[in-house]
Amino acid sequence: MLRALGGHAFSFGSLDDAEETTMDFPRRAAEIFAQAAGPHLPPNRPFTFVFVSIRSAEWDDSKPLLYLKNTRRLKGRAEVELLRTEEASPENLEIKIARPGFLVTGIKSGLKGPLKAIGRRLPGGMVDVERLSHCLLRIALGDFPDHAIFEAEFLNEHGKQDYGQRPNAFIRLGRNIRDRIMRHHHQ
């Protein structure tokens, strides 16, 4: 099951609402999902929870920040809380953190015009949404066991998958994911 919830701190009614959604909900979801999935996972395989953070999440609350201060700090605190939750129960829960940059579509063919100029100036650059989604699935399926935090460059590079214009490409991708899940389940 994949779920998305969150946003920039300024998009919430209050900072308390942003904190609850950004920090409390993911931590509770990770704990509940791990507990619910545990009996259905192979022995010695924890539940993998992938948290999509922000490129410049900040763990140091005292560091002066020039942009998106509340968002970056909340995302950083959420990352720390999730990793602490994993430390408390590593046999049941594995936390993976993705830190995409600015999301765009169409990087596959290369950036052109204004997007190319903007991409050079953005901290952390851009991540193609198709590459991000493909890489998130690969992360959740355990393709990168030696990584805990995935930066924008990694997400772009390892999310490359050319399915071309074939109409059945996503059906094949879905079957591939289903087969991999079943193989993991029967190990």
Automatic annotation (TrEMBL):
<protein>
    <submittedName>
        <fullName>Uncharacterized protein</fullName>
    </submittedName>
</protein>
